[in-house]
Amino acid sequence: MIRKAFVMTLKPDNETTYQARHNPICPELHNALKQNGVRNYSIFLEPGSDRLFAYAEIESEELWQKIAETEACRKWWSQMKDIMFTNADDSPVALDLREMFHLD
User: What is the pLDDT of residue 101?
Assistant: First the structure.
């Protein structure tokens, strides 16, 4: 299992909307994540900012990349682009983080 962490940024004043859209997450996206090897996935908001910290345990980078090709993911990105900073393809602007320490 690969531990993956990254940060994203909400557009100002969208914390409540972001949380509401994730609780619960749409079943199609949930299935796409699970079918492509995502096991443990959490997103946290940094207090006093619009920065999101995401952590996922994934089976492989190749499967993780395949999620972006699913209809469920593309639809999700389109629905989220009004409240997040996104790339031209509607994917969230995300900065991958490098693991510096881990304790099992």
Answer: 97
Q: Which of 1, 2, 22, 60 is catalytic?
A: 22
- Domains (ranges, CATH) in the chain? 2-97 (3.30.70.100)
Q: Contact, 50 vs 11, CB < 8 A?
A: yes
Residues in the chain: 104
Q: Locate tokens 């389109």: which residue?
A: 78
- How far is CA 57 from its chain centroid? 12
The token pair that represents 3 in the structure block: 């531990």
Helices and strands of the chain, counted as H and E runs? 4, 4
- The model's pLDDT over 18-27, given as tens digits with 9 standing for 90+, comes to 999 999 999 9
Q: For this structure, is 22 an active site residue?
A: yes
